[in-house]
């Protein structure tokens, strides 16, 4: 199957797309989308890649699963469509951003403007069945997205990886720590944040400090 994805990613991941597990994964995803309501919309499954070409990746944020309610997921982790109420994790992301950089909470939770500046917003699993969290886990997406993280680590330099929560922290083993930067904290979900593991991490200002030190433009969060 031909995967429609931004050209730099298509070239870098060409061998991955030919592997048997990926063929099986795409078959599963096609079947799911044909017989169930799934998110994000099919045309946005690879939105993180289309919005942020591989050579432009400066920051990586790793989520686990797309949002599974109507009109939320848009293919960028933690991001939602314009006009949709903020999920709890996104509320806490904006609270920390406000505290860290004195940025007003935006009207929209669509994080596409981050992606356009080089923030790669990757979910480990790129699809989900409506109202069934985790329903597309362990079908092959994690194998693919692990390879994506390794590809960024191999091909780029001085990328800032933001690993929020236990699941994301496990991905640190895929990253070459001699050439990249890793910032870790608790997850922004209320369960973690309210225990003191999220607020005060200052990841947004720390990211900009690292980018500036390495000659990159800071992110306008």
From TrEMBL:
First-tier enzyme category under EC: hydrolase
UniProt domain Uracil-DNA glycosylase-like: residue ranges: 50-211
Record's GO cellular component terms: cytoplasm
UniProt keyword terms in alphabetical order: Cytoplasm, DNA damage, DNA repair, Hydrolase
Compartments where located: Cytoplasm
Protein function: Excises uracil residues from the DNA which can arise as a result of misincorporation of dUMP residues by DNA polymerase or due to deamination of cytosine.
The protein, known as: Uracil-DNA glycosylase
Name of encoding gene: ung
